[in-house]
Amino acid sequence: MPLFSRHPKYTLINIQKKEIPEGLWTKCDGCAQPIYKKKLEENLMICPKCNHHFTLNAKERIDLLIDKKSFKEFDKGMTSNDPLVFKGPKTYKEKLDQDKKSTGMKEGVITGEGEIDNKSVVICVTDSRFIMGSMGSVVGEKITRAIETATEKKFPLIIVSGSGGGARMYEGMFSLMQMAKTSAVLARHNKAGLLYVSVLTNPTMAGVFASFAGLGDVIIAEPKALIGFTGPRVIEQTIKQKLPQGFQRSEFLLDHGLIDKVVDRKDLKSTLSSLLSYLV
Q1: Alpha-carbon gap, residue 214 to 236, rounded angstroms
Q2: How far apart are CA 12 and CA 223, in angstroms?
Q3: Among residues 56, 116, 160, 181, which is most buried (max CB within 10 A)?
Q4: Residue 12 falls inside a structural domain
């Protein structure tokens, strides 16, 4: 018998793979790099690697810009009807119910008054999660009433637009009328000598941009926000030409004089506060 028994050269160790809980990481839409979600939230939803600005919802915008405990919401219970009894794969009522449930909002805009560094303002914020932030009759009415309140109280007005949709097709002409209505009431606000600052975020498109979002006395935008009427892919397909690099992004529009300033989200509140100090 051999003096020593042969042992395997390597010992096999059974290591169980640990599961990584879902929701801890997210992929950046700008650089495609994974980001620890908590770190992203602490950085105001801005990618620390490429400075891509993730979309914020309306409540997050208000929390970012308005002094704590100073916000008072207007017309909180206002909801849309179905004037055309719209039918399709999903009815308009089904779409509304779905987005109410998923967002916790009753419509695609929050309006109210509050303070920015102790300066009183009226603020409206559209939310792209609610039927792409499109402008139906309730969105138009809430914004109109907010502007009228700002004019009556002689408050400066701030509208933060994040609306990939324009006029809401489910309401037909009722929706298109809101473009004229919001523009008319802004003209009265302007005639009263009062300030309106329009803040454009990604995306701000179509009828929203062609009405109240494009009418600010001062128009500022977050970096690389998509801003315009028709999207670049549709334009390229229509004119059969390649568009310039960065077309319809904030920086391109700043270079061509359509907006006044591109502002990083971290500096947005301080920029608005400075504008209020200078211009009110």
Answers
A1: 23
A2: 53
A3: 160
A4: no
**Residue partners of 192: CB distance under 8 A and separation at least 6:** 151, 154
Least Cα distance to 201 among 224, 229, 234, 178 occurs for 224
Q: What is the span of the domain harbouring residue 50?
A: 20-54
Mean pLDDT to the nearest integer, 253-273: 93
Tell me the residue length of the chain. Answer: 280
In a domain, 8, yes or no: no
Alpha helices in 84-172 (DSSP H): 92-103, 137-153
218-221 and 204-205 strand pairing: unpaired
Burial call 195-225: b when 16+ CB within 10 Å, e when fewer: bbbbbbbbbbbbbbbbbbbbbbbbbbbbbbb
Q: Which two tokens stand for residue 209?
A: 């941009």
Residue 187 three-state SS:
helix
Question: Distance of CA 190 to CAs 149, 150, 154, Å?
Answer: 13, 11, 11
User: pLDDT tens across 2-13, in order?
Assistant: 544 555 555 555
Query: Model-level pTM?
Result: 0.84
